[in-house]
Design brief:
The protein is an alpha+beta fold and about 900 residues long. It has 27 helices and 30 strands. The radius of gyration is 28 Å and the shape is globular.
């Protein structure tokens, strides 16, 4: 018995083959009863059966094992549910016979409020509050619903039967085969599933409407949502049908199930969940309202649907062996979702937007407290935290890097057509999927397939990216008509590590026609670039990491950096390359390898920038620089704000407040972001115009003066002037919040409220976030507070920690830590935070806490270095008043 405790994985002397699961939820009492008969293959001599279970009460009288070919039934002499280890240990008096027997267990549980396991979500119907029953099992919460071998590699088939109130809709992974109404209750049985992992099993019971369509090969696709909102499901339905067709061709395997349901759940902890055949979503990521949703909401829905449907193959059909390979699921689905979105909506330039993924990955992976893509997992509680920017964004980015490298070798370099069609990879991927379908795989299996398909040493290359954390910065210098390349591990803290990578380097010189590529396999390498007739002429710029497909940063010597600035000003570079130069410079500045004055001078070169993704990153950089400067040089803030306002003036004027007839999706998204930034930097005209339009909106929710794309900007602008003595704007926003039943609108408001510069208002917003008026899934949106609200948020977090810890499980809890702690920039705060959490650290927040503290240290050092920049004041004076 003791030998089974504290183990990361279950012993495998008995493994499940088939579950016959019956559940009866009681929606008013918030309880459920269930029974499960599991076909179990006993493969080694044992007296024990050990499986997972948690927060269930097992009706011990009902546990039995019927061995193969025998009429004897084994009753366990002991049944122990060990809550710390979430295991159920059945101890039999005799050794069990080998072969497949049936394990029967009866149990009971609570429909909890924690958005995991089998839980309840609350909705309103005809003005009345009702409960629905929902499951969320990933990563390891199926065990909270029924006893099972709750590991991704323990695949089995599932035959599910539900006893539910007759008037409700009850869905599961597979289609219904029989429904028997018996007065107030009905019994629904579903078709048996193919073999699958427990974390993908799903059940939803409640009242819903739906819209329906079919794929050309007859898969029935439905989008379910709150009664009365079926129209809002149409966009997601269209995307789903389109995407299923694409993936079928891309993976060369048809969608494996007879139906696909997608459903909006009002209380939902993550964004969406890829349950096999029954994908669950937050409302904001599934429903689209023509009248009140923004362009960014539309893009959100499309990419999330594309992501979850990618999992139906990559994740559900072929599943990671263990959570160490979680990135195979998430990194891959993220990458493929861009492929699908690009194909359905080419005008969104989604591959340029992909650079935000790369930036997010690079940002987290620049911390000493990061982790390798392939990460060791020893405890179920550690799994939630690795659903992070390493598994998703770095994972997706290194796949993109590999794809682009293979394309170059195949001679497809810079061929837009081939990049779009993504030649090279699909064949190998299809063979990987076929080979591991209905089974499990590891990272090395994917590399093996790609290696076989391409004939290239993929494993050797990719191991350097997935097995060690971090990434390199490549420093490039001109030396005697040659270029010298040096790699060293990049840390945002400014230190250097000793990691080494096999780096696919690409470069262009003076034009996109003159290009070169090679693998940098050593620390230092010199390359002859005679063929470029590289000379002292300024137009002879050199850009590395062409198109930004590589997962590394580049540091140019001063001469090369000046030439690139010239190339940006003269509009010689693509948007992706402009993005990369800016992003790398910002990272180098934070790491104190580039003075802030140089970064600001570079930013000035982006005044006429027009591309969405580049500007969006410029905005986020100005906001970060603005915050750090406020700590370092409060005396310079007027000039800093003025400089930033100047930077955005050009595009703000071009875009205006009103949408142009037939304008692009990207312009619609950009307008909102630019106006929000101008509001934050205190641009008077923007603030006034926002207030005028907001008043019109208060009088008429459908006013053309405040369409959804600019609402957030107006809300943020309104909150800039809210103080304890002038609360009108705040109260109006709360009124809109309470009135609307569109969750995207609620989130827009929640995300704007804490931008008030008055700490007492921020505190009020934080309290509101924890009130019953905000679903606990949404509390995190109020946490991004103004710089003036930072201190009050920290005090609030400490005061409410016990409650927060009790209420928010999974990865939501770690968001509280990172959002509140990371913005600080002093060593005193580091000490304070460490002291507070010394007695409160748990596995669920351990990693995030360390990362947040590291960020505070990085910020504090950055502040010090900015304070040491003697000519900053002068430089800003010039930038703020420069005439164009
Ligand atoms: N498998 C995840 C859902 C998930 C996340 C389960 C964390 C358990 C813990 C799903 O496929 C997913 O990745 N959802 C994303 C949305 C996606 C578009 C990036 C999410 O929830 O943020
Ligand atoms: Zn996913």
């Amino acid at each position: 018995m003791e030998q089974f405790k504290k183990q990361p994985r279950l012993p495998k002397f008995a493994v499940p083959k088939r579950y016959d699961l019956r559940l009866k939820p009681d929606l008013s009492a918030c309880k459920f009863t269930g029974s499960v008969s599991i076909d179990v293959d006993v493969v080694a001599d044992t007296r024990f059966i050990v499986l997972n279970a948690a927060e269930l009460s097992i009706n011990t009288g009902s546990v039995s094992f019927s061995p193969p070919n025998s009429s004897k039934v084994f009753e366990p002499s002991k049944v122990d549910l060990v809550e710390e280890d979430e295991i159920l240990v059945l101890d039999f008096a005799d050794t069990l016979p080998l072969g497949v027997g049936v394990l029967a267990i009866g149990f009971e549980g609570t429909l909890n409020e924690k958005m995991k396991g089998f839980y309840r979500s609350v909705y309103e119907h005809n003005g009345e509050k009702k409960n629905m029953a929902v499951t969320q099992f990933e990563p390891a919460d199926a065990r909270r619903c029924f006893p099972c071998w709750d590991e991704p590699a323990c695949k089995a088939t599932f035959k599910i039967t539900l006893d539910v109130p007759s008037e409700l809709v009850a869905l599961s992974n597979m289609p219904v085969i029989e429904e028997k109404v018996n007065g107030p209750l009905k019994t629904i049985s579903y078709q048996e599933s193919p073999v699958m992992s427990t974390y993908l099993v799903a059940i939803v019971v409640g009242l819903f409407d739906y819209v329906e369509d079919h794929t050309p090969d007859g898969v029935k696709v439905r989008v379910y949502c709150q009664v009365g909102k079926a129209n809002q499901g149409k966009f997601a339905l269209e995307v789903a049908v389109g995407t299923l067709g694409l993936y079928k061709d891309y993976f060369a395997v048809p969608y494996p199930l007879p139906k696909l349901d997608m459903i909006a759940i009002p209380d939902f902890s993550s964004g969406a969940m890829e349950n096999y055949g029954l994908v669950t979503y937050r409302e904001t990521l599934l429903l689209f309202d023509e009248q009140h949703s923004a362009a960014s909401n539309k893009q959100g829905v499309a990419t999330v649907v594309a992501h979850e449907l990618a999992h139906q193959w990559f994740g559900n059909l072929v599943t990671m062996e263990w959570w160490t390979d979680l990135w195979l699921n998430e990194g891959f689905a993220t990458w493929v979702s861009y492929l699908a979105t690009d194909s359905l909506f080419p005008e969104w330039k989604i591959w340029t937007q992909f650079l935000d993924e790369t930036t997010n990955g690079l940002t987290l992976d620049g911390l000493a407290e990061s982790h390798p893509i392939e990460v060791e997992v020893n405890h179920a509680a550690e799994i939630d935290e690795i659903f992070d920017d390493i598994s998703y964004s770095k994972g997706a980015s290194v796949i993109r890097m590999l794809q682009s490298y293979l394309d170059i070798l195949a001679g497809n370099y810079f061929s837009e057509v081939c990049r779009r069609r993504n030649d090279g990879m699909p064949k190998s991927l299809a063979s990987y999927i076929k080979k591991h379908a209905y089974s499990n795989a590891k990272t090395e299996d994917l590399w093996a397939a790609l290696e076989e398909g391409s004939g290239e040493p993929v494993t050797k290359l990719m191991n350097t990216w997935t097995k060690q954390m971090g990434y390199p910065v490549v420093s490039v210098k001109v030396k005697d008509q040659k270029l010298e390349f040096e790699q060293s591990q990049f840390f945002s803290s400014g230190s250097h590590g000793d990691g080494q990578w096999v780096i696919p380097i690409t470069l262009c010189c003076g034009s996109y026609e003159k290009k070169k590529s090679f693998l940098l396999q050593t620390k230092l390498e010199t390359q002859d670039v005679k063929e470029f007739s590289f000379d002292s002429n300024k137009s002879s710029w050199i850009k590395l990491n062409v198109d930004q497909t590589g997962f590394y940063r580049v540091k140019y010597d001063e001469e090369l950096a000046a030439r690139l600035r010239y190339a940006i000003e003269n509009k010689l570079l693509t948007g992706t390359d402009r993005f990369g130069i800016l992003d790398d410079s910002f990272a180098l500045c934070m790491a104190r390898q580039l003075p802030l004055t140089s970064l600001l001078a570079l930013m000035a070169a982006y005044r006429e920038e027009h591309e969405y993704t580049v500007l969006s990153n410029l905005i986020s950089i100005t906001r970060k620089v603005g915050r750090i400067a406020a700590d370092a040089r409060p005396d310079l803030m007027d000039n800093i704000n003025q400089f930033f306002i100047n930077l955005f003036q050009y595009s703000a004027e071009k875009l205006g407040w009103d949408a142009k007839q037939g304008e692009s999706h990207l312009d619609a998204m950009l307008r909102g972001e630019i106006l929000t930034a101008l509001a934050v930097f205190g641009h008077k005209e923007t603030l006034n115009e926002a207030s005028r339009r907001f008043d019109a909106f208060l009088n008429n929710r459908n006013t053309p003066l405040l369409p959804p794309d600019i609402r957030k900007a107006a809300y943020v602008a309104v909150m800039q002037s809210v103080t304890s003595s002038n609360r009108t704007g705040f109260e109006s926003l709360l009124r809109v919040y309470r009135e609307t039943d569109l969750s995207q609108e609620k989130i827009r408001i929640l995300g704007s409220l804490s931008s008030s510069p008055d700490p007492t208002i921020v505190l009020e917003v934080l309290k509101f976030s924890l009130s019953p008026e905000v679903r606990s899934q949404d509390a995190i949106y109020g946490l991004r507070v103004s710089k003036e609200g930072r201190e009050v948020a920290w005090t609030w977090l400490k005061d409410n920690w016990d409650y927060i810890e009790k209420t928010f499980g999974g990865f939501l809890i770690s968001r509280f830590v990172s959002e509140v702690v990371s913005p600080f920039a002093s060593f005193e705060k580091v000490k304070e935070v460490e002291e507070f959490f010394a007695s409160r650290e748990t596995p669920a927040i351990a990693r995030t806490l360390k990362q947040s503290i590291e960020r505070v240290n990085i910020n504090a050092n950055w502040v010090k270095s900015i304070q040491g920049e003697k000519n900053l004041g002068e430089a800003l004076q010039e930038l703020a008043y420069r005439k164009y």
